[in-house]
Structures are given as C-alpha cells and as structure tokens.
Amino acid sequence: MASDPTIVERLARQTPRVHVSIGAVCNNNCIFCMEEDRDGRYVNNSAMTAERVRWILEQNRGAEEVCFTSGEPTTRPELPDLVAQARALGYGRISIMTNGRRLSSLPYAAGLAKAGMNRFYVSIHGHTKKLHEGLTRTPESFEQTVKGLGSVAKLKRFGVELHTSTVVTDRNLPHLLDIYRFLRGLGVDQVVFNVMQANGRADTYFEQIFPRYSEIAAAFARFCQEVQDGGEERPMAFLVDIPLCATEAIPDFNRGYVESYHHFDLATQALLPETHRPERVQEGKGSGLLLVLREDLDRAEREKRAECASCRYDGACSGVWSNYLKRYGWDELVPVPALQPAPSRG
Amino acid sequence: MIDPGTTLAPDRVEVRLEEAAFPRDAVYGAAYTFIDRCYVRLDRAGDGHLAIVLRAKIPGKMNGEALAAEVRDEVFAQAFRLRLAEDGRELTAAIVAGAFGAGGSGEPAEPSIDDLLAGPDDAFSAGSDPLGIAQSWEEKYAKKAAKGEQGP
Asked: Which of A223, A322, B46, B52 can pair with A176 through a Cys bridge, CB separation 3.0 to 4.6 Å?
C-alpha cells in the first residue's frame, strides 16, 4: 500500500483556489477576528456586486475550489444565486466559510446545497455555550451554530461535506478532545483547529488569548494520542497555521496547512505594496479590483530568520507572524535538521 | 322469547355461540366489554361451541334476558369491526405510509432536497429570516456597540 503523502508533499500539490469576499457585515463579534477594520471590510465587500462576483467567477474557471468568505457570507441575500452561477460555470467544489448561524434554518441550508454548495466550513470555537459565546461575544450564537451543523449534517447524503474551523485560544486549548468528540458526534467530517493569525483583534488582545505555539503543539499532540487511545486510529482533526518546526511531535497526517488561494479587493482597500499594484490591476468588468495572493499577506506580515535556511521545512514554510515574534520571540522555534538520505547498500 | 342458546339462572347468564360463526377474537372482545359489570368466564360448550358465562357482581341487580341480548349484539358488532379492519388493512397501511413518507420497503423514506427546502410554514422558508440572524452584529446590538469595542 502506498504511504500517505507527507505534509511537505501535500503542500507542494496544492491546486489553485479562489476566494470571493462577499460578507459586507458579520453577525458575530469574535474576539480574535482578523478583520478588525469592519468599516474597511464593509466598503470592500459591499463593492463585490453580483456583476463583479460573476466576473471573478468567469475569470477563475478551472480553479479547484471557489469559496465564498469574508465577513459573514450568509448575510448576503444573493448568496444562493451566486452559488448557482458558480455551478453553472463548472466549478466542482463550491464552499463557504461561515459561522453557520443562518444554516440553523434547514430550508436555507438546503437551498444553498441545491444551488450547488457542496462544502461547508463552519466556525465553532467550543463545545459549550459558555466557551463558544465567550469568544464570539454574541448571545444565542452557540445554539444557532450547532443547529446549523445539524442542518448540514442532514445534507451530507446529497454529497455535501461538513468541515469545522475552531480558532485555538487560551480558553479552548484545554478542551480539544471535548470539542472534537462533540463535533464528530454532530456528523462533522473534518475538525480543523486553526491557530490564530496574529493580526487584527488577535493582535489587539494577544496577551489575553494567544497561546504559545509550543503549548498548542503539545496540547494537540496529547489530544491525538488520547483519540488514538480511544480506538480511533486516525483522528479526523488537523492543526493549521502553525510553523511546521513546532509540530514535529504531531502525527504527520494531522498536520494541516492554510490553503493557497487568491482573491480580489477594491484597489482602494487592498493592502498591497505599490510595487505590486501595476501587475495586479484588473481590467474590463473587473475594473477597480486588484488581485491579491495569500503570499502577499505572508510577505507583509510574516518573518523568517537566517537559521530557518537550515530547516527541513524552509521551502514549505511561510514564516512566523511578526506580531507573534514581537511577544514570544524565536526561542521555541528551532530549525528541524534535514532528513539524512537512506544509506545505500554496498 | 329467550334465545335457545341462552341459559338464565338467578344472577347468572350463559350464552353459547358457534365457533364457526364468529371469530375467536370477536368473542373475546365482546366478553371483555362486560367485565365492569359482571364476572366473566369463557368456556367450551360441547363440540364447536363456546360459552360466555356472566355472573352478577351485585346479586339481585342482573336482568339476565337483556344482558344475553346485549352479549349477542356485542359479538356481532365485534365481528363486524374485525371484518372492516381486515378489509381496510391495505388502505390503512397506505395512508400511514403516506403520512410518514414510507417507501415500498417499509422503511421511512429519506426526504428529498426539495422536501427540505419547505419549512413548516412561510416563516421558515428558505429565504426568510424570522430571528434576524442575518442582521449585522452592530445593527442587532447597536446599544452595546455604541459604548465602544468590548474587551475580551
């Protein structure tokens, strides 16, 4: 039997994805939200009219996945129509990043699935009301999100996939196993534990909520072991957006990564260096938009140090958030020696 | 006139019935309806016959002849109900299956995606938002938001 691809191989095999930022507003108020500038987001995402979204969809035909995201996409009434357009244009994977509250209406969730939505990434940050709503700071959000998960679980027999995203903070880090069991019990296919981007509110409240990478990695490794001890050989849980040098103790299968994607922002809102702008300006019906790559944010907000060049993961690593390094420094992040080639038979 | 199949005695009535004429369940059902007023016994009464024997719970209060007629009426009524139930069995099954969405296998059928699109009423249809979930956080909690950004 062929062995599973390693994290480095998985990273190398990524295929293009396009994100469409359509949620001008959000109905949650998460303490770690990286979109801290809500006015700026409103301006940018309000400008993503149905015509512009259609242009984006047409320009990116052939992408492996289109994901409706930013703000809370379900606040856009046209969402089912946009999904239907994506399907008509031939997108095979049509997804959404959502807090899932609107999905608590089964007819609404079914409407999205019928239009063509076939993967849901639902954000849920705890297995209890107290834990989740302490982070979302929104009354009733726990009940509605859990009910939303229930709706999507009912749609799985129509080919819909249900993934969750739990942003790891000081508060929920001690409860990874409880959260995992809770979510799997609700029918979730993949439970993703997302380490915070140290930007936006996560930077503002860094001291109160941001655990060290070494603590997160150790807790996640213990969690994997506990799940395996419980009889589940391969936990369907993945730790994402943490430097690979910090996660050597985690089973390779459970090491996730931030997908490679690109999106389009208003030229007036995009955080892009002037030097990159000329080549990213869009024309025609995309006039006024700039192409933004995930790597742009990495280049602007992450760092590497000289020692990283000796690390086994250097080529696959995007670096460490500068805002993280300002607080915790490099001490816990030690380059991993390169693999020694297997000795040849003489 | 007393039915030849009936035996009357003080505080006691015995009604004999041909087994071939009435289903056993009809006889049981009919006898059961008297247990609040009488002590009831079912017994064989010679070849091909059953007997329903009723004995008064309160001595001196039993009208034996009327009670015997009531027993016979009840046996006919029970037999008729059983026949109706049997004749309507398929129809009943079809109605129940329809109500619960049952398929031909007898297992409850899964709803189609179109079934799921329809909520219990208009308030729960796909496009509606009766709880205002799609409202922005600022719009819904404007008073708190006006006081400034919350701390952790």
From this structure: A223
**What's the pLDDT band for A60 if we cut at 50, 70, 90?**
very high
Q: Report DSSP state, residue B102.
A: B
Between A230 and B147, whose confidence is greater? Answer: A230
Cα separations (Å) of A319 from A249, A302, A314? 19, 5, 8
In the numeric block, the tokens 């034996």 are attached to: B64
pTM of the predicted model as reported, rounded to 2 decimal places: 0.77
Token representation of residue A250:
């985690």
Residue B138 and residue A38: Cβ atoms within 8 Å?
yes
Query: Check: CATH 1.10.3720.10 for B6-88?
Result: no
Q: Does the beta-carbon distance from B125 to A107 stay under 8 Å?
A: yes
B125: confidence class by pLDDT, cuts 50, 70, 90 = low
From CA B138, how far away is CA B16, in angstroms rounded? 84
How much is the pLDDT for B109?
73
Inform me whether the pLDDT recorded for B2 exceeds 70.
no
Strands of chain A, DSSP E: 17-21, 65-69, 93-98, 119-123, 161-168, 190-195, 237-240, 262-266, 289-293, 302-303, 320-321
Helix H, strand E, coil C: the string for A203-214 is: HHCHHHHCCCHH
Chain A residue numbers touching B134 (CB-CB < 8 A): 27, 72, 74-75, 77, 102
How large is the ipTM?
0.87
How many Å lie between the alpha carbon of A31 and the closest alpha carbon of chain B? 6
The size of the A-B interface in CB pairs under 8 A is: 75
Q: Say whether pLDDT at A1 is over 60.
A: no
The rounded distance, in Å, linking the Cα atoms of A227 and A93 is 30
Domain ranges within chain B, ordered by starting residue: 6-88, 113-147
Higher pLDDT, A251 or B62: A251
- Which residues from chain B sit within 8 angstroms of residue A105, using beta carbons? 119, 124, 126, 128-129, 133
Best interface-test mutation with B: which of A32, A108, A155 has the largest number of B CBs within 10 A?
A: A108
Residue of chain B nearest A139, judged by CA positions: B141
Residue A77 in tokens = 């009434």
